[in-house]
Design a protein that fits this description.
The structure holds three protein chains of three kinds.
Chain A: E1 8-17, E2 20-30, E3 35-39, H1 46-53, E4 61-66, E5 69-71, H2 76-81, E6 84-87, H3 99-104, E7 110-111, E8 114-115, H4 117-131, H5 148-161, E9 166-170, H6 178-193, E10 197-202, H7 205-211, E11 214-219, E12 222-228, H8 234-242, E13 260-270, E14 276-286, E15 290-294, H9 301-309, E16 316-321, E17 324-325, H10 331-337, E18 339-342, H11 346-350, H12 357-360, E19 372-373, E20 376-377, H13 379-392, H14 409-421, E21 427-431, H15 439-454, E22 458-462, H16 466-472, E23 475-480, E24 483-488, H17 495-502, H18 516-521
Parallel strand pairs in A: 3-10, 3-11, 6-9, 9-10, 15-22, 15-23, 18-21, 21-22
Antiparallel strand pairs in A: 1-2, 1-4, 4-5, 7-8, 11-12, 13-14, 13-16, 16-17, 19-20, 23-24
Helix pairs in contact in A: 8-17, 13-14, 14-15
Chain B: H1 9-32, H2 37-40, H3 43-68, H4 76-95, H5 101-128, H6 133-156, H7 176-194, H8 196-206, H9 208-213, H10 218-244, H11 258-268, H12 273-295, H13 302-320
Chain C: H1 12-22, H2 25-49, H3 54-66, H4 69-94, H5 102-121, H6 128-160, H7 164-184, H8 218-237, H9 239-249, H10 251-256, H11 261-288, H12 300-310, H13 318-338, H14 344-358, H15 360-370
Helix pairs in contact in C: 2-3, 2-14, 3-4, 3-13, 4-8, 4-11, 4-12, 4-13, 5-6, 5-7, 5-11, 5-12, 6-7, 6-11, 8-9, 12-13, 12-14, 13-14
The chains are: A alpha/beta, B mainly alpha, C mainly alpha.
């Protein structure tokens, strides 16, 4: 089979948002009739790059070639006209409208003024037949009545109906069950065999290896490299994705042997869409101990944390704080009980963007003395607290009257960390404590967390950065599909072993010092 | 066929319950109070109910189009007042206190044109200048309540007009405007559920981004629906006046809450033009039933009976929870970058 | 990454609240003055077009609002009601809850006050002490009734997911209709020719203000100032206020900080309704002395929305905004008697003020284009 001009060629794409460089001179080539996986951690710039290709963003520099021709796309409409379709993470579907109506929206065939449903139906059925989709069986069902996998197929059919030859799938497996993932893989395969070209955005190594012809890894907005899938391993990819940031080594510590402060038993948590996301987790955090939770995003970590911090009601199990059952206590009760929380999303949860830092210093402290007494606020104490945090954590600019939104991400995060640690907690739950934070601030935050641990606070930390997990944790639990697949010692576990566990594969029995060769051979064995 | 097009099961149940209640009521009246039902349900009653329902149905259809596309037009009442007054004013200007049927029709057209023009300004404020839809809608009501009686006082020296004329019946004792409304209801239904533009209206209010990425200009769709809603409310006001024959500008004017009832009607009808028209008819009949009760000597408070629609909507919204408010109502749409 | 722009968080209400609250104080004052000036200007043009002397009309507005002791007393009287209903709206809007139902809560509160005072009046001796007892009792009943009537749509929103904008509009009509029926029927005064309840006992009377207007009391003015001060203090100095305002700005952050969103909606609506109910109580005790058909009582609760927005939902800012509306209403009474211009013109002008207040963006864009806006983006 001879290869034509590449379906897509991106050269030197740079995209900046303000001071943040989301894509830095990225080159990317999608061969015609192939599947190319774009791999990287959250925030590595995958979606931005594809949004540039799809006409959602204008690049600051660099060129786009489609089928060998240089193109500029002002809008998705232009990209669509050039045969590009994108299946977003958040489906672009009109929920109460039927599948048929959604597929043809904006491209409706008409007959005598009204929509010609019959001809649309025939066209869609033809597409479905060609790729073995079941979408045509639900053509008159409102989209909202379909499960997410089916909705995704509707999105794909929509792109095909509009004549897309090049399909971009943005984290398509993130919302799917394992069975649905298998189905999607088949569909992608069929599309490739039919000569279409696909870009598959993911952060899951095994999926990329399974389906892609080529794999490009992005890290911090840069393309680390492109490799043929046949010639690489999960270990190599994991190394490319995570990289090696030059940080100081594991910090000096004494193993935490204090009493248990946080005990979780058989915790089950519902997800946003009703499906259970945490399916029976047991964990214990002792005084002066860091329990790190590693795992690919979306395996139940967020829900687990919400169950512990009181933001979401569990569907089963118990949570105990220093021996007291707090399962039925509210979020506010738990704050007062001594659970501090560095939230996953500092923009929407951790700070009120339009508040000054002073007013933000009160967030979560509303019922805690000296900031409030009997419901009356003591702004003097709050302002002092804000000033202290700003000084101690070197928040820039050091202006307590600055609005939170005017601060950089790193400084916002430092402020939140300072505020939460200032609660004098018994337990600190830290979710991605250094996501999107500059290196200087990362080290600073890490040091603070260690100091806190040494003071005897129990810390539960979720992070997608493996080196962070390994550096800070006393024990590491790996979460996969709502369960702890294993708990390992960060001193001895290797990055590649963590990568395997995160992909749902158990480590070979007894291979404490597992060398890379053997563990890589363990395949497919998803424990449950 | 798609579920959203037809009244869903819960709503059918609700409708069924309403019918049962009415039947029981009729039985109680006939047996318990020895009321002659044939005196209660007369052809005149049907005619008056239809007349009562038409202005509500027209405004409701306009309002539901706007809201379906994501813009809450709560100025319907104000536009109806302006429509009614403009009709009266034009009639008077053309034919004094004895306008001809031609004048009536011309006045209706002028009224629609005037309200359409005013709604264009309203739409620009809402869509281009992202005005608060609730407050701007209330403002339209206040403006109607203020300027229509003001202008009436200028023309006639009083807030109400002298007797002008009302429209002649066409057939079966019904005004041609009743037939016009029935036709418009049908057209509105077909347009909304059977044409591409109707699809766009629905998508604009549910997921404008999906519509945008499909290459359709969301705000253009919204301009069209908002302007249409004003025109329909204006027509509703004009029809009200053409049936009444004179303008009343005292108190809450002759429109007297019909614009608000129109909103209730389309909520009750789950944004379906046919459902909204049916609800309007129900409310019109309810209103007229009061009159019928009086003529046969039953004491029921008209005011209480007239509250039923509002209570019913609260029940539907809270307990049935099935009235589906379009997802992004009230949210201005801004394209990326 | 693509969705993480600065304004991608939150839904319609957040965006709306953010836009309304974003404006700096100076910009807000500018927009308020521009809205009023523009509306008045259009009013004058219309008056001129209708053949009246606009200068004279403008003069009459001024005289009617502030030209004499009587006018000032009349202005202050309406101002109290506008300010207090405005505060009721501001409370809810600041919390991101769109209470359009202040009118209904105002009516229910006022009517309950009248009925409870008349009922208790039969057991309490007349005289000053008795009067004070009756007024206190009636006011408490009014506050509770208004609060409950406000909490109802709050409950519907929290537990039935019913949009509060629609439910509160419906509850306005239900309040007006139902109270109207009660006033005409079960609670109608048999001796009165008009549709109204019996009068409040003679002992129910507030001390007059300096102007000798029987319908304006210093107590009313103090109550208004007290409510403004209290609500301002609650919003800025208490935990509840912080929870409430934080919910209005960013509900996700409020939840993170331990606010129970459902309870917050209900208590916000209840507080808003309580202020509206209190206003209703003051209205009947100070001004009306009985209850009439609420459809003729005035649109205080609707105008209050404009008052609140004019003040950027700031309880202190509601004072000047309420004064503007009070002045316009007072001028209306003057114009009605002393001029041949149909007084409805003023209602229309109020409508225009409201319209312009709804669209601050209009003035922002205008200012930006003409370079008047300074460095506002």
């Amino acid at each position: 089979m001879t290869r034509n001009a590449p379906a897509v060629r991106l050269e030197g794409i740079t995209k900046r948002f303000g001071d943040v460089v989301a894509n830095d001179e990225v080159d990317f080539t999608l061969e015609s009739g192939s599947i190319h996986a774009l791999l990287g951690e959250n925030g590595s710039g995958k979606t931005t790059l594809m949004s540039v290709l799809y006409g959602l963003y204008d690049q600051n520099s660099g060129t786009i070639h489609v089928d060998g021709e240089e193109r500029t796309f002002e809008s998705p409409r232009d990209a669509m006209d050039a045969g590009i379709g994108m299946i977003h993470q958040h489906f672009q579907l009109v929920k109460p409208m039927t599948v048929l109506q959604n597929v043809i929206l904006g491209h409706e065939p008409t007959e005598g003024g009204t929509v010609d449903e019959a001809s649309a139906r025939a066209d869609i059925e033809e597409i479905c037949e060609r790729y073995g989709f079941d979408v045509d069986r639900h053509l008159d069902t409102p989209v909202e009545d379909l499960d997410l996998g089916a909705q995704q197929r509707v999105e794909i059919v929509k792109s095909l109906y509009r004549g897309a030859e090049i399909l971009i799938l943005d984290e398509p497996t993130a919302v799917l069950t394992p069975q649905e993932v298998d189905g999607l893989m088949e569909v992608m395969n069929d599309l490739r065999e039919d000569g279409r070209s696909l870009i598959f955005i993911s952060h899951k190594l095994d999926e990329a290896l399974e389906i892609a012809d080529d794999i490009t890894v992005l890290r911090d907005g840069k393309a680390v490299g492109t490799v043929p899938a046949a010639e690489t391993t999960e270990q190599d990819l994991a190394r490319m994705m995570v990289g090696r940031e030059v940080l100081f080594d594991r910090l000096e510590r004494e193993p935490g042997t204090g009493d248990p402060v946080l005990e979780v038993e058989g915790l089950r948590m519902p997800g946003d869409r009703g499906r259970e996301q945490v399916e029976g987790v047991d964990l214990t955090v002792r005084e002066g101990e860091v329990l790190g939770i590693a795992g690919v995003q979306g395996n139940g970590q967020s829900e687990l944390i919400e169950g512990i911090t009181g933001l979401r009601r569990p569907s089963g199990g118990t949570v105990r704080l220093s021996g007291t059952d707090i399962t039925d206590r509210s979020r506010r009760d738990r704050i007062e009980d001594g659970i501090a929380y560095i939230p996953e999303d500092r923009q929407t949860e951790g700070l009120v963007q339009e508040y000054t830092l002073q007013r933000n210093a009160l967030l979560g402290n509303q019922t805690i003395e000296p900031y409030a007494e009997n419901g009356i606020l003591n702004w003097g104490a709050v302002d002092e607290h804000a000033a202290d945090v700003i000084e101690e954590y070197d928040v820039q600019p050091p202006n307590p009257e600055a609005n939170a939104e005017s601060l950089s991400g790193g400084n916002q995060q430092k402020f939140i960390v300072g505020r939460e640690i200032g609660h004098d907690p018994d337990v600190l739950v830290a979710s991605h404590p250094t996501r999107g934070v500059d290196i200087g601030s990362i080290e600073f935050i890490h040091k603070r967390l260690m100091e806190l641990r040494d003071e005897g606070v129990g810390i539960l930390m979720v992070s997608s950065k493996l080196e962070e997990i390994q550096k800070l944790s006393d024990r590491v639990a790996v979460m996969y599909e709502g369960e702890f697949i294993d708990v390992v010692d960060p001193e001895t576990v290797t990055e590649s072993e963590l990568g395997l566990l995160m992909a749902g594969q158990t480590l070979a029995e007894g291979s404490d010092d597992a060398d890379d060769e053997t563990s890589a051979d363990v395949d497919g064995g998803v424990s449950s | 066929m798609s579920g959203s097009e037809y009244l869903d099961a819960a709503r059918l149940r609700l409708g069924g319950i309403t019918l049962v209640v009415l039947a029981v009521l009729a039985a109680v009246l006939a047996l318990g109070f020895d009321v002659d039902l044939s005196r209660l349900i007369t052809w005149g009653f049907v005619t008056r109910s239809l007349e009562m329902a038409t202005p509500i149905a027209l405004a409701a259809i306009g309002g539901l189009y706007a809201e379906k596309s994501g813009v809450f037009n709560i100025g319907l009442e104000g536009f109806m007042i302006i429509g009614a007054f403009t009709t009266a004013g034009t009639m008077f200007a053309l034919g004094g206190t004895s306008p001809t049927q031609g004048h009536v029709w011309a006045a209706i057209l002028v009224a629609v044109a005037v309200t359409t023009l005013l709604t264009v300004i309203f739409a620009v404020l809402l869509i281009r200048y992202k005005a608060d839809q609730i407050v701007a809608g209330l403002a339209v009501w206040f403006i109607g309540l203020g300027f229509a009686p003001f202008a009436a006082a200028l023309i006639w020296g009083s807030r109400s007009s002298p007797g002008l004329t009302n429209i002649n019946e066409l057939a079966l004792g019904q005004s041609p405007l009743v037939f016009l409304t029935i036709v418009l209801v049908g057209v509105a239904w077909v347009f909304l559920y059977r044409t591409r533009y109707g699809y766009w209206v629905q998508a604009a209010g549910e997921n404008p981004e999906a519509l945008d990425t499909a290459g359709v200009d969301v705000n253009r769709v919204r301009y069209a629906t908002v302007i249409f809603s004003g025109a329909m409310a204006g027509l509703g006001g004009a029809v009200l006046l053409a049936h009444a024959g004179n303008f009343v500008g005292t108190g809450s004017t002759m429109v007297d809450g019909r614009g608000w009832i129109a909103i209730v009607a389309y909520l009750f009808g789950n944004y379906n033009p046919v459902g909204a028209a049916a609800a309007a008819l129900l409310f019109g009949a309810l209103d007229m039933l009061n009159v019928q009760f009086q003529t046969v000597g039953i004491e029921v408070s008209a005011r209480l009976v007239n509250l039923l629609p509002y209570v019913a909507v609260l029940v539907v919204l809270t307990i049935y929870g099935k009235t589906r408010i379009p997802a992004v109502v009230g949210e201005p749409y801004e394209t990326e970058e | 990454m693509s969705g993480s722009g600065p304004d991608s968080n939150g839904g319609a209400l957040d965006a709306l609240a953010a836009r309304l609250l974003d404006a700096s104080v100076l910009e807000r004052v500018g927009i308020a003055i521009a809205s009023t000036a523009m509306a008045l200007l259009i009013g004058f043009v219309i008056a001129a077009a209708a053949g009246y002397d606009s200068i004279r009309f403008a003069n009459q507005l001024l005289v009617g609002a502030f030209g004499s002791e009587r006018a000032i007393a009349r202005t202050l009287r309406s101002t109290t009601i506008f300010v207090m209903t405005g505060v009721a709206v501001a409370v809810a809007f600041r919390a991101g809850v769109f209470n359009i139902g202040v009118q209904g809560q105002f009516v229910v509160g006022g009517f309950s006050t009248v009925i409870s005072i008349i009922w208790l009046g039969a057991f309490v001796p007349s005289g000053t002490v008795g009067g004070i007892v009756l007024m206190l009792f009636g006011t408490v009943v009014g506050v509770v009734a208004g609060g409950l009537y406000g909490a109802l749509p709050g409950v519907m929103k929290a537990y039935g997911d019913a949009n509060e904008i629609i439910t509160t509009i419906m509850l306005n009509f239900i309040a007006t209709g139902f109270v109207g029926w009660l006033v005409a029927g079960p609670f109608g005064a048999p001796e009165a020719t008009a549709t109204r309840t019996r009068r409040l006992p003679e002992s129910v009377e507030l001390p007059q203000a300096v102007f000798g207007d029987p319908n304006l009391s210093i107590v009313g003015i103090l109550l208004m100032l007290g409510v403004v001060a209290l609500v301002a203090a609650v919003m800025t100095r208490t935990r509840f206020g912080y929870d409430m305002v934080t919910s209005g700005y960013q509900d996700t952050a409020a939840t993170y900080s331990g606010v129970d969103a459902k309870r917050m909606v209900i208590s916000t609506m209840a507080l808003s309704g309580m202020v509206a109910g209190l206003t209703g109580a003051l209205f009947v005790i100070m001004i009306q002395g009985y209850y009439t058909d609420p459809s003729g009582i005035g649109n205080y609760g609707f105008d209050a929305i404009a008052v609140s927005l004019l003040a950027a939902n700031n309880p202190v800012g509601v004072l000047p905004a309420g004064l503007l509306f009070g002045g316009l209403e007072s001028a209306g009474s003057h114009v009605q008697i002393n001029s041949d211009i149909p007084v409805q013109l003023i209602d229309g002008i109020v409508g225009l003020v409201v319209l312009f207040v709804a669209a601050p963006e209009l003035f922002r864009m205008f200012a930006a284009r003409t370079g008047l806006g300074g460095d506002a983006e």
